[in-house]
Design brief:
Helices cover 7% and strands 33% of the residues. With 505 residues, it is mainly β. The strands form eight sheets. Strands 1-30-29-28 form a four-stranded antiparallel beta sheet, with no helix packed on it. A four-stranded antiparallel beta sheet has the order 2-3-4-5, with no helix packed on it. It has a four-stranded antiparallel beta sheet with strand order 6-7-8-9, with no helix packed on it.
């Protein structure tokens, strides 16, 4: 049925075009129209005013040819002279102090300063007024670290005399790569300020610079701290013949007290001297165990220099011990585990009765060479005589931990303290009872409670101001009432009666 068959091929021609055609076309926007318009600034005219020239006018002096004025003066002169001599011997106005300011009997808040950029995540770890008393500086950081610090914080300053002061934005903000734990302005140079970081670095800034304000830094190494810097303080250079020469002293949780000297040419700080607090310096009751090395370092929390004897200073420690020290002390040398380019040794010359918790602040009186105050986690304030082991006075405010204590720069009997319950307490030793004459709410709000007030600082030049810093990062500036600001003649006498050792003792 089916068979193979071969047929011829069938072809057909393509109908597709053999040639391509191209065409060009274009488009053009409408012509642009340009116009030139000029403006001219307003013309100004200068107008001057001139006061009337009265140089040719003369008002004659009153003349008295009658002799009555001379007669009057001769008559009253003996009486007036006698009365003036009596006034010189009178003590009627001994306690009277002239106040040229407007009278005020209350304490008031005049500024609340914050750095809005931090949004309340950092605490005020330190405050310092500059040498003119116009600028307040605050160091931002945290005391509650559980590990290595990775925070980015800052040093901020506000000039309270600026008309356009912004309370929520500092005039100067200096960024720091870790928490800044303390700060201190130079005593005479208003542009120099030092600070210590959580990582152990000591930094000096020059606020008069336009670009990079970091003047010098200790860096990290054998000649620096290995733990957070607790305090920095400018101390008089007693080895210099010039009066206004200062050394920078830093203390730390690593037990070191390092003395830095600034090179005049390079403006760099170099390690000049140093000390170390060791386990052997502690009272027997505070040593953790007998097996602990005697040269084991003990953390230093605070330092203060004597106002008269520039070689003498006191320090507080983490275990609660308080020590009298000397810059010229030649105590036991540091252990071999501490490497330093200068020989570190113990500065301790005397040990005082200890607190039952870390000492947060120790402050020498600016008026009495032997008086100093301390405060501690054990919730007590103490007044010591530098020559006695036991405290002269112990005050328990009942307001939780006492974080700082400061003497007034204008009144020898006045001092301030800050508490864990958000209060600023002002004490007057003229009072019969050791109770605060003022209790001021100085802490911000954290939920339903007041934030702890961690530090305070009297203004050394404007005696009517005191600043506080709390754990929310807020700074409050208070105006002190006139009765607390103005010196009283009995102040120094009261302080001396409390502190001085009698011949019988």
């Amino acid at each position: 049925m089916f068979t193979d068959i071969a047929l011829e091929a069938v072809t057909f021609k393509s109908n597709w075009k053999k040639e391509r055609s191209l065409a060009s076309s274009g488009c053009q926007t409408a012509d642009l129209v340009y116009e030139e318009v000029a403006c001219q600034s307003v013309k100004y005219k200068t107008v001057k005013t001139q006061t009337e020239d009265d140089s040719d006018k003369f008002t004659g002096f009153a003349k008295d040819d009658s002799g009555r004025l001379a007669e009057f003066l001769q008559r009253v002169e003996p009486v007036m002279r006698k009365q003036l001599e009596m006034n010189l011997k009178s003590h009627a106005f001994d306690d009277y102090e002239v106040s040229w300011d407007e009278g005020s009997s209350t304490m008031s808040t005049i500024h609340k300063l914050t750095n809005a950029a931090h949004e309340g995540q950092f605490q005020i770890t330190g405050l310092s007024w500059n040498s003119t008393g116009a600028v307040i500086a605050a160091s931002y950081g945290r005391f509650d670290h559980e590990d290595w610090c990775t925070h980015k914080t800052s040093l901020c300053t506000w000039n309270l005399e600026r008309r356009n002061l912004d309370e929520n934005k500092p005039d100067t903000t200096l960024e720091v790569s870790s928490c800044l734990m303390c700060t201190a302005f130079h005593p005479t140079n208003p542009a120099l300020i030092a600070g210590g970081t959580y990582n152990g670095v000591v930094i000096v800034w020059d606020l008069s610079r336009d670009d990079d304000m970091v003047l010098t830094s200790s860096g990290l190494g054998d000649d620096s701290h290995r733990e957070p810097v607790s305090k920095v303080i400018w101390a008089s250079d007693t080895s210099s013949l010039k009066k206004n020469k200062y050394l920078l002293v830093s203390v730390s949780s690593d037990g070191k007290m390092l003395v830095w000297k600034m090179d005049r040419k390079t403006k760099q700080i170099e390690l000049h001297d140093g000390f170390v607090l060791m386990n052997m310096n502690l009272p027997t009751q505070l040593r953790k165990s007998r097996s602990m090395r005697s040269d084991k370092e003990v953390g230093v929390t605070c330092i203060s220099y004597n106002a008269e004897n520039k070689e003498s200073f006191v320090i507080g420690s983490e275990p609660g011990a308080v020590f009298k020290c000397s810059m010229s002390a030649r105590g036991e040398p540091a252990g071999s585990n501490i490497i330093s380019s200068v020989q570190l040794r113990s500065p301790v010359t005397f040990t005082y009765a200890y607190h039952y918790g870390p000492v947060y602040s120790a402050e020498f009186s600016p008026f009495h060479r032997n008086a100093f105050l301390t405060c501690s986690m054990d919730q007590t304030l103490r007044l010591y005589n530098m020559l006695q082991k036991q405290p002269i006075m112990t005050i328990e405010p009942g307001e939780g931990v006492i974080y700082s204590v400061k003497w007034s720069f204008s009144r020898p009997a006045l001092f301030a303290a800050t508490t864990d319950t958000g209060l600023l307490l002002l004490y007057d030793l003229n009072q019969n009872q050791p109770v605060p004459v003022y209790k001021l709410e100085a802490g911000g709000q954290i939920g339903n409670i007041k934030a702890p007030v961690l530090t305070c600082q009297f203004n050394p030049h404007q005696h009517n101001l005191i600043a506080t810093g709390d754990s929310t990062g807020c700074i409050q500036i208070f105006r002190i009432s006139d009765n607390l600001k103005t010196p009283v003649s009995r102040d120094l006498e009261v302080l001396s009666d409390l502190v001085d050792i009698t011949s019988e003792s």
